[in-house]
Design a protein that fits this description.
1 helix; 8 strands; Lipocalin; eight-stranded antiparallel β-barrel; mainly beta
């Protein structure tokens, strides 16, 4: 074989390898998380259970003063998790928007509350 043929064959193999390799590794968020929200009146603890199917994420959250609520529109892109949390507080329905960065068994981000702004949160999978 000539050098030119070997070079072309090598380039084809490289191109095939690049096409099959994922651009970024997908995080795994499935499991039970202990979440701490830094609210205006102090920290609020919650238990979050997440289920993952590819990039789609569903789950539930339980926290003091709020009826158990389901997560909607959950999507995981690389290490970034985004979801909507529809809660009911004292008869008022509120849609909260969350964005967090996942790193192994830890997550941190912000929960946006309409009319009040964003509040930081942190979470640990499997406990505190």
């Amino acid at each position: 074989m000539t050098t030119k043929v070997l070079t072309i064959a090598g380039m084809v193999l490289l191109a095939l390898t690049v096409q099959v390799a994922p651009a970024t590794a997908q995080a795994n968020v499935a499991g039970e998380w202990t979440l701490t929200l830094q609210g205006p009146e102090g920290d609020v603890d919650a238990t979050v259970v997440l289920m993952q199917d590819g990039s789609a994420v569903t789950g539930t959250i339980v926290m003091e003063g709020v009826d158990a609520a389901a997560l909607s529109d959950g999507v995981l892109e690389g290490n970034t998790l985004k979801f909507i949390l529809d809660i009911s507080v004292q008869g008022m329905d509120i849609a909260l928007e969350a964005t967090g960065e996942v790193s192994g068994d830890e997550m941190s981000g912000e929960l946006y509350v309409p009319d009040f702004g964003g509040f930081p949160f942190s979470a640990v999978r499997g406990g505190s």
